[in-house]
Design brief:
2 domains; 3-stranded antiparallel beta sheet; two-stranded antiparallel ribbon; 130 residues; 5 strands; alpha+beta
Length: 130
C-alpha cells in the first residue's frame, strides 16, 4: 500500500509495479555490485547516481534507483543475474548460484555502463570454493 500511495502521489511511475526490471533497490545494488551503504551515499551526494525515495510518515520507506533516471549508468538486470553452476562431489551432483562477477570476462559485458568506472574489482580465488 505504501508504494501504491507513492504511485498515486506521482513520486514514482506506475510502471514500476509491473516491471521490476526497470529499477534497482538499495539491496539490489548491494547484492549485484557489493555496493555498501557508505559508498552508495557518497555516490548520491556527488550526483553519480540518482534515486527516488518512497516516503511513508515523513521517512524514506524504500530507496529506488530507476533505470530511466540512470540511463547509461545502470546495466539491465539481465546482465548481472547470477548463474547456476553444476558441481559433482562424492558422486553427487549439486547446483549452486554464483554472482555474475565470478565469471571470466563478466566485467566486459558491463564496460558500456557508467557504473563500471566507479567499481573496484578484486581477484576472486575460485580455488577456495572447491
Amino acid at each position: 500500500m505504501i508504494c501504491q500511495d507513492a504511485i498515486n502521489r506521482k513520486e514514482i511511475p506506475a510502471s514500476l509495479a509491473k516491471n521490476k526490471e526497470s529499477w534497482y533497490s538499495k539491496y539490489d545494488l548491494e547484492s549485484y555490485f557489493n555496493l555498501k551503504g557508505t559508498a552508495l551515499t557518497n555516490w548520491i551526494k556527488k550526483g553519480i547516481i540518482k534515486h527516488r525515495d518512497v516516503m511513508h510518515n515523513g521517512k524514506s520507506h524504500v530507496r529506488l534507483f530507476l533505470m530511466k533516471d540512470n540511463e547509461g549508468f545502470l546495466p539491465p538486470k539481465k546482465l548481472v543475474e547470477s548463474q547456476m553452476i553444476k558441481e559433482t562431489k562424492d558422486a553427487k551432483t549439486w547446483f549452486r548460484s554464483e554472482p555474475w562477477y565470478k565469471f571470466v570476462g563478466a566485467e566486459d559485458k558491463l564496460k558500456a555502463y557508467g557504473i563500471m568506472e566507479h567499481l573496484r574489482f578484486t581477484v576472486v580465488d575460485n580455488a577456495k570454493d572447491k
